[in-house]
Amino acid sequence: MPTSLISRNVAVIGAGASGLVAARELRREGHKVVVFERENQIGGTWVYDPRVEPDPLSLDPNRLIIHSSLYSSLRTNLPREVMGFRDYPFIAKTDKTRDPRRYPGHREVLFYLQDFAREFEIEDMVRFETEVVYVGLVEGSKKWKVRSKKKRGDNDVEVASDFRFFDEIYDSVVVCSGHFTEPRVAEIPGISSWPGKQMHSHNYRVPEPFQDQVCVILIGSAASAVDISREIAHFAKEVHVASRSVADETYQEQPGYDNMRLHSAIECVRDDGSVVFQNGRVVLADIILHCTGYKYHFPFLETNGIVTVDDNHVGPLYKHVFPPVLAPWISFVGLPWKFEYSNWLALSAGVKGLKSGESKCIMLISKGCKLVGSGSAVPTLQVSNDDLAKIVDTNDEWISVRTGIRNRRVLTGKDSLISLAAEAASKALQMAEVEPDDVDLVLMCTSTPEDLFGSAPQIQKALGCKRNPLAYDITAACSGFILGLVSAACHIRGGGFQNVLVVGADSLSRYVDWTDRGTCILFGDAAGAVLVQACDSEDDGLFSFDLHSDGDGQRHLKATIKENEVDHALESNGSVLGFPPWHTSYSCIQMNGKEVFRFAVRCVPQSVESALEKAGLTGSSIDWLLLHQANQRILDAVATRLEVPPERVISNLVNYGNTSAASIPLALDEAVRSGKVKPGHTIATAGFGAGLTWGSAIIRWG
């Protein structure tokens, strides 16, 4: 957007994080900004109010609305480093009144926002205790009528005569009103006749009111459910957590709490006070506490149906911000649950329009993705360390001590990598109970395609996908599966795909120099696959990722193109073509093992730590560490750096060797099918290899 030549009058609704930074950017562009804030201070959702609403479920439209949803003990689930604005970092202060922790309490976030407002003199633009009750287009123009109300006194009982109303006209409106006030409540069969008490976490502040309650049930699996269940467990006799993101048969005691159990979702409730879970368990409960999130809610906004809220999706919106038909005169900031999008929000002031039309109508996608099926396949031919000792100067002990490998599987001339990949993909579909015709996308992660132009379409063909879904290859060596997983998530979150098959398959044995003791002992062939499926955002199973490459490191691990003999059939044409026609192929794998080891133990832990930090987790809070199966010494070194005990490291290296892009899904599938990895388990996974490429992802299985 060019620098504004015309100063616009802009109304910003809300003085939380989004509203503050939007107001600052708009003023920087030379616009006249008024920020409407219904509370008596800035901070939005970070303003703690100990009061709760009289309706514990917050369903009564005539209730006194308490806008705060904070509970007293709430701490951030992200480190302060990623919560601050880019040009105003969230730095720990030494003042005794401040909270220096990396994951501070809610009061520290409020202080940070207040510091930000003071630093940039934003409070001068704010009208406190002024609530917007209507925003609508002025007939025959692109301007907006904004009606607001300001209370005359301090009476908690709202009477119309207690308010003064103001009507004003603005050129543009920026909606920054947040999304933590209007609760979503779970639909439970039989709830209308259930005699117990229900409440929403919106009205939870402290655990003491649950003292001596016999049985409390919480619904949900996100941060608030985790925090609140742990608090209540110190007061109530029994706590049961119901989650739809775990398998139907789930029934687990929660670590550290002998009175708390994790269940699958609630099947129904009965008029005798009992609650029936999908796992078949039945308990008598006093309270059901809904930790089920919030709805987007704009009761003041009238756009004649141009902007709607449908199934908690706001749209149509371009870039999650601008309604194409009304852009740039109205915009929404902060919808995607982050502090982003605001440093360029001055577009809403209106010096440059956006093209309307379906191509720009991108709805806000509140989709998540989850891993719902896995499969794997390996060749029948097994090559042991003793077999290799017959062709190179080595022995079983030397190989196993240095690598952890004892066997590997190798494709023979009769075998096909495509058939292995298709077998693994088919098993993943069967586990997920998804038909091939329901697959929307196939991603083949491989560095050894059986066709120069890609192998993924052949997997689609082998599976019998009659709808001809998109299929393409991803080449990133041993990091390929991680990149494929992240790519699948991006496709799903973009709104166009429901079921994405991510297949990792490689046959590096075809590129091994079987006279080179340094490489022929390492590699095997295999295929692994997972089905990634769209889900509600609250059930999202890809928490974070971290991806990198370094072309300078290519010299340490490579299989480069080489020229072979001249094609004598075409040699006579060389003078005409201006170059001698050569056949080309790839060299055998060349590796500097020491440098690759140094690279892996340096970069992989950093990447995993970065992904964990983005997810608000630590190494001690994950269930499993699943690394590319390259070398047992690398696995041990990375686990030690991350302080993950050996019993929580998944490894099948001993049986298959380094299978490149197949190694992670192969190990995951074995762990799932053996019962080691269970639905709801959190896994830190990382790939690393040629390129050099490396990356990590924090995922939840099931």
From TrEMBL:
Q: Which organism is it from?
A: Hevea brasiliensis
Q: Which pathway or pathways does this protein act in?
A: Lipid metabolism; fatty acid biosynthesis
Is Transcription set as a keyword in this record? Answer: no
Question: Does the record carry Transcription as a key word?
Answer: no
**Could you tell me which residue ranges the Beta-ketoacyl-[acyl-carrier-protein] synthase III C-terminal domain spans?**
612-701
* Cofactor(s) essential for the protein: FAD
Q: Which reactions is this enzyme annotated as catalysing?
A: malonyl-[ACP] + acetyl-CoA + H(+) = 3-oxobutanoyl-[ACP] + CO2 + CoA
Q: What is this protein called?
A: Flavin-containing monooxygenase
